[in-house]
Design goal:
By secondary structure, this protein is α+β, with helices and mostly antiparallel strands. Among the domains are: 133 residues, Alpha-Beta Complex (Adenine-n6-DNA-methyltransferase TaqI, Chain A, domain 2), CATH 3.90.220; 133 residues, Adenine-n6-DNA-methyltransferase TaqI, Chain A, domain 2. The chain contains 7 helices and 25 strands. A 4-stranded antiparallel sheet has the order 4-11-8-9. Strands 6-5-10-7 form a 4-stranded mixed sheet, with no helix packed on it. Strands 16-24-21-22 form a 4-stranded antiparallel sheet, with helices on one face. It starts with a strand and ends in a 9-residue tail after the last helix. InterPro entries: Restrct_endonuc_typeI_TRD_sf, Type-I_RE_S_subunit.
């Protein structure tokens, strides 16, 4: 058991007696980022943890990127050429007493809770980072800690990558399952016929084709969100208005939605955002609100309208100035050809998809929970190593 001492820093706690506790500025120079101005292939980093575009300017790595605004708990170690915008600082070692890789691991443990305010963009200044205190073990021990963490974190990251791959395959399977069920039915032995519609392809012989305007009627009543709860139209369905939703002072400029209505966002940059309303409320004018007619199963068409096949067809019928921001209005939407299985088949398919997709979603949720736990374990391993709770000289 190593002799320890109080570090004087809450997140660090006790450290070995031969370790120093120093402000980051003692060994690190922190620089600011800026917006790039020229095109190129140099990765551009912010505080989010991944490059989000490329540019022509560059800085020479290696460096550790520290969050200035937005995501603060995701320092990144970058090598080679890079560029950082003003939401991230770039940090480089200025002394021979601290390894950059050890600093990277230590930076992931710095307590950022004091800077997590109620604002949408938590922030830390250069002064905050400069004066944050971290452990500084002897260099030989830093190297052993780095070796230990590289090995442990690589194993954890590999496990996470495999689980993300499983999630990706489950999501693709779910998409194909839905697309097949709502266009081909559930009986693999049924007689098929050509629908004559490219995006639909072959359908069961006893299925008919119809137009959206023959299955739904338009609801186009303007209301106030003071009288009707504002709702958001998302890829997961219709939900109470999200905090991130764009808001306006024009409270009367909303569309009425009644429970059971189908709502779809008409803009191509919101593709896949649609669903059945589970409550009365109001939505922004960019959405199309539809009333289902009798003798149809709304859940069947909800599944149909969530397919990539339909989304492509829906926005192909739209209009706009630029290709990636088209709007498909009711005038075009009502003429889109869709399938019309027998009513009993619609119910059967909807029940099947409700059950199967719920099981797939549950499997995805389990993998996501395991990934979250692995992330917490990874942080714990790093914290224990960089604060001396694990003796990596003996590990």
């Amino acid at each position: 058991m190593r002799e320890t001492k109080d570090s004087g820093v809450d997140w660090i706690g006790e450290v070995p007696v031969n370790w120093e506790i120093v402000p980051i500025k003692a060994d690190v120079s922190i620089g600011h980022g800026s917006d790039p101005t020229t095109p190129g292939d140099i990765p551009v980093w912010g505080s989010g943890g991944e490059p989000f575009k490329t540019c022509g300017e560059h800085k020479n790595g290696p460096a550790v990127l520290l969050g200035r605004k937005g995501t603060l708990d995701c320092p990144q170690l970058v090598t080679g050429l890079y560029w950082n915008v003003d939401t991230a600082f770039d940090a480089k070692i200025t002394s021979k007493k601290l390894s950059l890789k050890f600093f990277y691991y230590a930076a992931t443990c710095v307590d950022i809770k004091p800077y997590m305010t109620n604002t949408a963009k938590p922030s830390m200044t250069q002064f905050d980072w400069d004066n944050s205190r971290i452990p500084r073990p002897p260099l030989a021990e830093q190297r052993r800690i780095i070796s230990y963490l590289d090995e442990r974190c690589a194993a954890i990251d590999e496990d996470v990558a495999k689980r993300r791959d499983v999630i990706g395959k489950l999501k693709e399977y779910k998409k194909s399952l839905i697309a097949h069920a709502v266009t081909k039915g559930l009986d693999p032995n049924t007689e098929m016929k050509d629908s004559g519609v490219d995006w639909i392809g072959e359908v069961p012989a006893n299925w008919r084709l119809t137009k959206i305007g023959q299955v739904y009627d338009l609801r186009n009543t303007k209301v106030s969100d003071c009288d009707y709860e504002p709702l958001s139209v998302t890829m997961q369905g219709i939900v109470p208005q999200l905090d991130s939703a764009a808001k306006t002072d024009a409270h009367d400029d909303r569309k009425l939605v009644m429970e059971g209505d189908f709502v779809i966002n008409s803009r191509s940059d919101r593709r896949g955002s649609c669903g059945i309303a589970r409550q009365d409320g109001s939505v922004s004018l960019i959405n199309t609100v539809l009333i289902p007619r009798e003798h149809m199963e709304p859940r069947f068409y909800d599944w149909l309208f969530h397919t990539t096949l339909f989304a492509d067809e829906f926005y192909k019928n739209g209009h706009g100035i630029v290709d990636d921001l088209w709007t498909t209005k009711w005038a075009e939407m009502k003429g889109i050809t869709i399938v019309e299985p027998p009513f009993e088949t619609q119910i059967t398919v909807a029940n099947y998809l409700d059950e199967r997709c719920a099981a797939i979603d549950e499997a995805i949720a389990r993998q996501e929970q395991l990934i979250e736990k692995l992330g917490e374990y990874r942080k714990s391993v790093i914290h224990h190593a960089v604060t001396g709770k694990i003796d990596c000289m003996e590990a």
